[in-house]
Amino acid sequence: MPRHQPGNSLRAARERYLEVTDDPSARPLVVASWQRSIEYQVKSGSLDAPYLDNPNLESPLARAALPILDSLHEQLADDPVSTMITDRNGVVLSRRVSHEGLTTHLNRVRLAPGHVFSERYVGTNGIGTALASGRPVVIAGRQHYVEELREFHCAAVPVLHPTRGSLLGAFNLTTIRQGSDGMLMAFARSVASQIEAEIAAITSRRERALFQDYMEACSSARPGPVLALNRDVVMMNEQLSAAVTGPDHYALLDHAREIAGHHRLEGTRTIALPSGRVAELRVRRCRREDSDAGAVFRVRLIGRAQPTAAVCAAPVRSGLGLVGSSPSWLRAVADSDTAFVAGTWLHLLGEAGVGKRTLVEALHRAHGAGRRLEVREPPPSDSPAVTERWLHDIGELLVVPSQVLLLSDVHLLGDQLRRRLTNLLVRRAAGATVQLVMTSQPSMVGAADELDQVCGASVEVPALRHRHGDTEHLARFFLRKYRPSGESRFSPDALTMLQRCPWPENVRQLESVIRGLARRAPSRAIHAEDLPPECRVSSNRVLTTIEALERDAILRGLMDRDSNVQRTAQDLGISRATMYRKMRRYGIVPSSLT
After folding, report:
1. Strand ranges (DSSP E) for 220-277?
2. Per-residue model confidence as pLDDT tens digits over 188-229
3. Most CB atoms closer than 10 Å: which of 48, 147, 204, 236?
4. Is 402 left (phi over 0), alpha (psi -120 to 50) or beta?
5. How far is CA 152 from CA 4, 128, 149, 566, in A?
6. What count of other Cβ atoms lies within 10 Å of the Cβ of residue 241?
7. pTM for this one?
């Protein structure tokens, strides 16, 4: 039989299919699968099933399926049948087989945990075709696209989420014994149904646990507004749904989902809503059976909604001359200003790059006439000599009159140094003549330590992704700063892309991007295609320098290749499986690049 050439047409695939099978019931599905295999340029003469390290065995699918596979393994002892479970990408998560001869056959074609058997890599096969078509399939013998797989008979059934209906993976039965395809399929369907039922039970237990905690919060003596959510479910009582509507509703859910995503975060968080009100969220985790079932929030709303300001194309400045008009930013600025003017020691919290130091410098310019701003970073090492000298310097600065002392990034201090700094600040507080400001990143654990309580006021500076509408104002401000001639502007598509970017490094990253654009050859309009690769991702994870270089290389490669993943992977010298894994890690969606 002639080897397959990538350029063959659907007609050639159909003719070839008719040569190798006389099963008319499977013909449309298999021919469609062969067409996809041709489009993926799969080589029928060689098998390429990429390997992924550490397949995820903690997913709901794996937790539900593995006990069932173990039970089947005992029932099918010594039968030449293998049972497998895969994720939705075709990665084999687990395989059970008790027949030594079949194990040898499976290992030879790498049909084993960690290997990827989607159609994209190995063409028509039970696992890949079931996932691609979303239908139960039997792929027998010469119906397989790759020659090395044609000794196998496979029955695969997609496994769906019981409530969302989304594809989770597939259950697969594989044998080399000739037999009834109908029996194989009936067995595979039965097992897939058992797995879906177990997923439903697990999901139900998690949701019941969350619902129980939610009802306890709602039925307390003074319930107030209550919100409960996890990845799949959102529940809120009537008091909350009536009190929070419109943009406030979406902003509250956005913050709550982000908080719930940090499984150790508990305690109280305060957020500013688009209407100008403040929501105080008391967070309680719902933990059952050694797993996190979600979080319950008791919500307290503070203040009244303010009229929405008209959208302005020019940069909007606060009373301190800082750009931004979102309620969360304006409230942080106002609260910081009030504390600073009153002489209260101030603790500013916020992610890296949100503008904490810029805010302190603005406060000093506005209210620090005649006072010097002293900035102290954490000590460069933990050696006793260095930390002793650092503490000594802080102690000296605390009693210098008419001075503002900024201790930046105190979250970087080790536990012992934090305790010693706390003791120093408490001892000197009564006689201190300095205005103290500390900055740090928000703690991912709920309980605050003693250093957090030294200051009389604590203000959280919002991340840029929570400053609704400020991205455009800041982008225009930085463009005017680095191109003062005013000849350039942003096109609507560029502004849309800037506003969609999650900006994991916040305002600092946005300024860096605009500065880079301004340094290029001047043009009257900046379009979406002019923006750097980092503006085209959906992940808000802060990357290392090496990771950022890797992300940008992948993005540039995809844009050069019109979002063709396979050709980009070849250009970069990595496998397609590695390419997809890195795209998921960096939040890269090829369809958004064209």
Report:
1. 226-229, 234-236, 267-272
2. 999 999 999 998 888 778 888 888 888 988 988 777 899 999
3. 236
4. left
5. 20, 14, 6, 27
6. 12
7. 0.58
